[in-house]
Every structure is written in C-alpha cells, then in structure tokens.
Design a protein that fits this description.
With 230 residues, the chain is an all-alpha fold. The protein has two domains: 161 residues, Four Helix Bundle (Hemerythrin (Met), subunit A), CATH 1.20.120.520; 51 residues, no CATH class. It contains nine helices and no strands. Helix 1 packs antiparallel against helix 2 and helix 2 packs across helix 5. Bound molecules: fe (ii) ion (2 copies). One fe (ii) ion binds next to helix 2 and helix 4.
Length: 230
C-alpha cells in the first residue's frame, strides 16, 4: 500500500486535477483569438476559476495542513510557502491580464493582454509542476508515514473544511472530471467506505449535479451505491 491508497488520496487528487488543468488552459489561451469576444470571456472565466481553486488549495496547506504536520514534528520546508506566494502573484497578474481582455468589447486592442496571459500561464505551469512534484514526492509521503490512519483522515477533513461555500459546488465536480478514471473510482469507493452515509450522499450529489451524464453514468457503473442517490 502506498500513501496514495490511504486517507491522503484526495490530496494527490487535487494535485492531479491542478496539473491537468494548466496544459488545457495553455492550449485554450493559445487558440484564443483577439477577435473572439466569447472565446476570450470563456478563457477568462476558466482562468479565474483555476486561480480561485489554487488560492484555496494553497491556503489549505499553509494555513491548515502544514501547521498540523509541524505540530506533530513533521518537517515542512518554508520554501513551499514561498512557492505559493510566487504562484499566487503569477495568478494575480494572469487575472489582471484576463480583465483587460474584456475591454475587447470597447474596441480596444487586447493582443498584448492575450500575449501576457499565454506567457504567464506557461510560467505558472512550470512553477506549479515542480511545486506539486515536491509535495507529492516528499511532503505527503512523510505525513502518511508519520500519522496514523485516523490522524491522516482528520488532516484531510480539516484541510477541505474551510473551502468557501461558493466554490465547493463547482470544485468537486471539476476535480472528479480532471483526474484519471481509476483515481476517481478509487476516491468515490474510499469515501463510500469511510464517510457517514449522509455525508457521502451529500458529496456524491454535488458531483452528480455538476458532472456530465456520460461521466456520471460511468462512475455509477463502478460504484453502484451511487445509483441509489435521490
Ligand atoms: Fe502547495
Ligand atoms: Fe498542494
């Protein structure tokens, strides 16, 4: 059993979803045209959502996960916090450029803003991939090795508990859609087996309501308990 098979699985899963999203956003920005107002709006919306998810995720580590680990004597490098600061400033600049894209409606030339979105997304991708690799390869395995099964569960519950209510309904379906089929099936089965039924059903409903039918039906075929949801 690796640390991926334990209670910390969802920590790996959010990383997998973040990793997968950046190349998609980069491709979207690459294909966007300065004359396509709808496409620019869609790009801006997706980038802003990603930035919100990254902010909430980084805070869950810096404000919850890392302090709990340090209190238990598990070393967590302060460099990870410096990474978060740098990445969030990058996302700030990307969001700023995204807002400028909207001035397309006023007939303004947004070519420079779009070029900045493209360049900064590339920069953010390289930065974030190295950062996530350090967390997946070092921080999470050390938490898994040092904490009991119940303490790992407690850590994850506390880390996700502060997710803002306005972000939750979109975040969970987004994460499920952006991880591999094996990992999403594994996660739903782990939740089914570990959570009180009412909590499992609440989470499953959030996923169902924000997920395309084909993906949801595929999930139900692997986790038949989901078919009983009302
Ligand atoms: Fe992080
Ligand atoms: Fe992380």
């Amino acid at each position: 059993m690796t640390s991926r098979d334990g209670p910390l699985q969802s920590w790996y899963d959010i990383h997998e979803a973040l990793r997968n999203e950046l190349p998609r956003l980069r491709a979207m920005a690459g294909e966007a045209s300065v004359d396509d107002a709808e496409g620019l709006q869609a790009l801006s919306d997706e980038v802003v959502f990603f930035a919100d998810v990254l902010m909430v995720h980084s805070l869950s580590e810096d404000g919850v996960g890392f302090p709990i680990m340090r209190n238990r004597g598990i070393e967590v490098s302060p460099e990870l916090t410096q990474d978060h600061h740098r990445e969030l400033m990058l996302m700030y600049d990307i969001r700023r450029a995204c807002l400028e894209l909207r001035y397309h409606d006023d007939g303004q030339d947004v070519a420079d803003a779009l070029a900045r979105v493209r360049r900064l997304l590339e920069e953010a991708e390289a930065d974030l991939l190295a950062h996530i690799e350090a967390e997946d390869g070092d921080v999470i395995p050390r938490a898994a090795a040092a904490l009991s099964h119940d303490d790992q569960m407690d850590l994850v519950i506390k880390m996700v508990a502060h997710t803002p209510a306005w972000l939750g309904p979109r975040l969970l379906p987004w994460m499920i859609a952006n991880i591999s089929r094996d990992h999403r099936v594994q996660l739903l089965k782990a939740w089914r087996d570990a959570m009180p039924p009412a909590l499992f059903e609440t989470r499953a409903r959030v996923i169902r309501d924000g997920t395309e039918a084909a993906l949801w039906n595929d999930l139900v075929s692997e986790v038949p308990d989901l078919a009983r949801l009302t």
